[in-house]
């Protein structure tokens, strides 16, 4: 009897599974929701396996997000962004089953949780008292040191702190992972809640249900094998569907928690796959929806994971949902992913660029100073004015007939506050003392730049940190240049310490996304642009240290107003080809930095 009880207990233990809900980020990584959010999703799933989950009810930071359980997608209401979600399973003895969370410290000083797969691996090594853990087998070049509780990048040798904390354990379900079955059709009837949030959620579900119904009809009719537009989700009329209304369909309805799931044996089925319960399976099978879009059905591009799309994503997403809810046919299309890199290339296939010496340049830590003091630089490029016009000095905003606004603040022998000079090329006039002040606040490289028209006097240099620039020809053509091979440029700048020419001397700066790969067509104009880019690199003008416009991170290496093409085989992000005006535009940007075709003749 005792043995039988032990067997039953073991069977019950083996039947328990920890559920972790995850969403797919723009880098193709599945990121876990928190334990409290997962409990909330499971509770809604028990009440209505075809329902929608309002994440803001359990986490205020997730208030814009709604998960549609039928299509297994997360929808952001304010932007229209749709991301796949999945329901993953782990052992009860694993990290999520115990409520253990492993996190690393980001650049803002806050803590970011690891992907659940990595978290489980780290916890297993920690429990076995391993001194360290190499994450290379999981595709990450990091080394975890449990003694110092740090993470080290094996390439850059950068260290970050990590920590282990206890949180709410993730939800448990009883029973084996369900077999592939369709969703229940029936449901109790009831009056829907009339609040605005529930109306929006119900409309979201109607759109998702229409997507699923269309996919299943195409599958049953054999249309899945027909040629068509890949990645197209065709929406059917809402009145062709039967979507039961019950209290559990709406987020305002109370849901009672329970350990076991009354609907645990149900699963979303598309193409014979168990899409709800298969870990790592993307929830919408695009192949099932490959069919010809009916004539007269509008196509609304929904924002894809990279953020591209010709329409505002929120307008496209919400318009599609509302049109579907009203019984109108509509088609949601997803843009393809950008092609950032060419196919793999052997080193022997990389050739020097015609007319360009070498295949690599390195920058020095600092350009040599010309040994000229500010007064000499200003006098070199200006002419004295005998008759001063009655107009403003655009540096100090005082009248030119008056003394410089820097009088009493800045003093230089030989330059009186009332002296006015005219720049030789452009003819704009300023107080000489103001030009000295402007020079002192710049890079002090022996050059001047007119603050009005941006004309450069002398050779302008920048504050780019030390690094390496490589360039070579590869045997692949860019879109729009079928008759030319391609020039690939590889920039590599390591992280380091800021110097006196940078915003925060003595402080560390980061270098994200290096090495950076950029592309040009291997034709006459492309080679001309490369030569000027090499000149700009030598003058340290390609990069600078500042605040990233995309991430908001400060004290990091950023582009310096000379645009590059970093997308090889497409132009979905605006940084690729075809772009017939790019070469002319970049020549103009280089000229604005004082790097022009005239320099190639010198």
UniProtKB/TrEMBL annotation:
UniProt-listed Enzyme Commission number(s)? 2.3.2.27
User: What residues does the WWE domain cover?
Assistant: 6-87, 88-164
Q: Pathway involvement?
A: Protein modification; protein ubiquitination
- One Pfam short name: WWE
Q: Which reaction does it catalyse?
A: S-ubiquitinyl-[E2 ubiquitin-conjugating enzyme]-L-cysteine + [acceptor protein]-L-lysine = [E2 ubiquitin-conjugating enzyme]-L-cysteine + N(6)-ubiquitinyl-[acceptor protein]-L-lysine
- Cellular component GO terms held in the UniProt record: cytoplasm
Residues of the RING-type domain? 393-454
Q: Which Gene3D superfamilies does this entry report, sorted A to Z? A: 3.30.390.130, 3.30.720.50, Zinc/RING finger domain, C3HC4 (zinc finger)
- Do you know which InterPro entries this protein is assigned to? Deltex_C (IPR039396), Deltex_C_sf (IPR039399), Deltex_fam (IPR039398), WWE-dom_subgr (IPR018123), WWE_dom (IPR004170), WWE_dom_sf (IPR037197), Znf_C3HC4_RING-type (IPR018957), Znf_RING (IPR001841)
**Does this UniProt record's set of keywords contain Translocase?**
no
Localization, UniProt: Cytoplasm
Entry-linked PROSITE patterns: WWE, ZF_RING_2
GO BP, one example? protein ubiquitination
Q: Where does the signal peptide begin and end?
A: 1-21
* Alphabetic keyword roster: Cytoplasm, Metal-binding, Notch signaling pathway, Repeat, Signal, Transferase, Zinc, Zinc-finger
Q: Which CDD domains does this chain map to? A: Deltex_C (cd09633), RING-H2_DTX1_4 (cd16671)
Mind listing the GO molecular function terms for this protein?
ubiquitin protein ligase activity; zinc ion binding
Question: Under which main EC class is this enzyme filed?
Answer: transferase
Task: Name the domain of life this protein comes from.
Answer: Eukaryota
Q: Which family does it belong to?
A: Belongs to the Deltex family.
Instruction: Extract the PANTHER family matched here.
Output: DELTEX-RELATED
Task: Please give the name of this protein.
Answer: E3 ubiquitin-protein ligase
From what organism does this protein derive? Answer: Takifugu rubripes (Japanese pufferfish)
> Gene for this protein?
dtx1
């Amino acid at each position: 009897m005792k043995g039988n009880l032990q067997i039953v207990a073991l069977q019950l233990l083996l039947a328990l599974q920890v559920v972790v809900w995850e969403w797919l980020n723009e880098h193709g990584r599945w990121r876990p929701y928190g334990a409290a959010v997962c409990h909330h999703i499971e509770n809604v799933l028990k009440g209505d396996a075809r329902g929608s989950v309002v994440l803001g009810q359990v986490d205020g930071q997730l208030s814009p997000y709604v998960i549609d359980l039928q299509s297994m997608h997360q929808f952001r209401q304010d932007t229209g962004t749709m991301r796949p979600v999945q329901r993953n399973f782990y052992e009860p003895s694993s990290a999520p089953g115990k409520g253990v969370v492993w996190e690393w410290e980001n650049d803002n000083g806050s803590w970011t949780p690891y992907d659940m797969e990595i978290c489980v691996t780290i916890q297993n090594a920690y429990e076995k008292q391993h001194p360290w853990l190499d994450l290379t087998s999981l595709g990450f070049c990091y080394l975890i040191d449990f003694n110092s509780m740090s993470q080290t990048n094996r390439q850059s040798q950068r260290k970050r702190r990590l920590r282990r904390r206890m949180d709410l354990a993730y939800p448990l379900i009883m029973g084996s992972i369900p077999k592939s079955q369709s969703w229940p059709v029936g449901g109790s009837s009831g009056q829907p809640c009339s609040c605005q949030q529930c109306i929006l959620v119900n409309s979201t579900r109607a759109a998702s249900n229409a997507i699923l119904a269309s996919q299943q009809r195409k599958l049953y009719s054999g249309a899945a094998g027909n040629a068509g537009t890949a990645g197209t989700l065709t929406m059917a009329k809402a009145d062709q569907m039967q979507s039961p209304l019950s209290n559990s369909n709406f987020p305002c309805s109370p849901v009672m928690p329970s350990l076991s799931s009354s609907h645990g044996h149900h699963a979303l089925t598309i193409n014979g796959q168990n899409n709800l319960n298969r870990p790592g399976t993307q929830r919408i099978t695009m192949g099932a929806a490959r069919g010809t879009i009916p004539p007269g059905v509008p196509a609304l591009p929904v924002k894809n994971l990279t953020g591209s799309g010709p329409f505002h994503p929120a307008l496209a997403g919400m318009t599609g949902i509302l049109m579907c809810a009203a019984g109108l046919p509509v088609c949601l299309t997803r843009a393809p992913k950008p092609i950032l890199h060419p196919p793999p290339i052997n080193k022997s296939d990389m050739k020097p660029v015609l007319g360009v010496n070498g295949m690599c340049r390195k920058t020095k830590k600092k350009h040599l100073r010309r040994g000229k003091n500010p007064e000499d630089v200003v006098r070199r490029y200006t002419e004295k004015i005998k008759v001063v016009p009655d107009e403003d000095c655009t540096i100090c905003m005082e009248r030119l007939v008056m003394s410089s606004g820097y009088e009493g603040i800045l003093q230089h022998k030989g330059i009186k506050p009332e002296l006015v000079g005219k720049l030789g090329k452009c003819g704009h006039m300023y107080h000489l003392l103001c030009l000295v002040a402007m020079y002192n606040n710049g890079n002090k490289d022996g050059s001047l730049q007119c603050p009005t028209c941006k004309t450069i006097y002398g050779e302008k240099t920048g504050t780019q940190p030390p690094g390496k620039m490589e360039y070579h020809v590869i045997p692949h053509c860019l879109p729009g240049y079928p008759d030319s091979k391609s020039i690939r440029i590889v920039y590599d700048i390591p992280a380091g310490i800021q110097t006196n020419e940078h915003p925060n001397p003595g402080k560390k700066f980061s270098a994200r996304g290096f090495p950076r790969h950029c592309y040009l067509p291997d034709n006459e104009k492309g080679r001309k642009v490369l030569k000027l880019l090499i000149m700009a690199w030598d003058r340290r003008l390609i990069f600078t240290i500042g605040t990233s416009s995309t991430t908001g991170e400060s004290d990091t290496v950023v582009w310096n107003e000379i645009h590059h093409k970093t997308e090889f085989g497409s132009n979905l992000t605006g940084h690729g080809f075809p772009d017939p005006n790019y070469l002319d535009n970049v020549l103009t940007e280089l000229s604005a930095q004082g790097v022009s075709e005239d320099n190639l003749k010198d």
